[in-house]
Amino acid sequence: MKSAPHYYIGLMSGTSLDGIDAALVAIGRDTPPELLGTTAVAMPDALHKQLLHLCHAQEVSFAELAAAEDAFCRLQAKAVNALLTAQQLSPGQIQAVGSHGQTIEHAPGGHNGGPAYTHQLDNPSLLAELTGCTVVADFRRRDLAAGGQAAPLAPAFHQALFGRQQGEQLILNLGGFANLTWLPSNAETPVTGFDTGPANVLLDAWFSKHQGGRFDQNGAWAASGRVDPGLLERLLEAPFFQQAPPRSTGRELFHLPWLEHHLTGNEAPRDVQATLAELTAISVAQGIQQLPLTHQGITVITCGGGAHNADLMARLAAHLPLADFASPSAYGWPEDWIEAGAFAWLAHQRLHQLPGNVPTVTGARGPRVLGGIYAP
Q: What pTM was computed for the model?
């Protein structure tokens, strides 16, 4: 007899800093995770600006961190409570809320010879108080302590969600940064995954600087420009793109000053945008070429905000002519909700003392139970 599913909520605020995604997920012992409901709460302009500042600040005060953390946590609570209300559920019906937090800096290789670290702004104690739910948080640092990159963590969820029943599968997440998960058809072959480089983070930053909005809708501005071959070549010289997996990255490496360092000053802004879109497409294609695929005509399941960027998807198709791009909606999971769903699943793994990482992805010394539990 199948066990009754339990309810979990996953929270995700990615490197794009566009808001809080909250996903209600049913998880049973014998069935794949099922998405039941979603809520998105937009990031207020003031908090967006504050978090962006913290991501690139050389020095900050404890008061600044506390203020940002408090505002961020209250936005998370707003998302959770809105989702509970919409789904007519009480906090007691939720097994746990999985909170990723907001990544401020990610340095799995350390900095200037210092120890490895990854810092997510979060306050799970306050979140438990504001929602009445058990909260699971701080997922990344246990993998880091075991010698891993602490990222990406979604591949374990991809394996649970998509399985291997359809044969060889490739999942591409296009968030602030792009990452791949390869699920080989042979169960004896280990799952592989890694970050390929920037996806939306540089596109958003350059668009915001020159157009004033937060993102380039459908990549229309990028599509109006022309790729600058010289600039593209200089950007691709970044050592990260030659680094062998396991690898992960973030805003500490790819940011607006990094881009501006490579400009001559003669580039048209729209041409820079086009070049950034091409950089994403090429680095993703190079990442896929590193995988031991059994055939090139593989289906690529695309998720994340970049999956809605028509210009970016066209560039990817041009660089991967044998690939067939598909939506995860066929599995009941729209493109925008995979990441939030992953942290609902990771909360389930923590409560059941089950591993949440994939050592062949992160480079950790072995499987680890991730996260800490905060009772309401």
A: 0.95
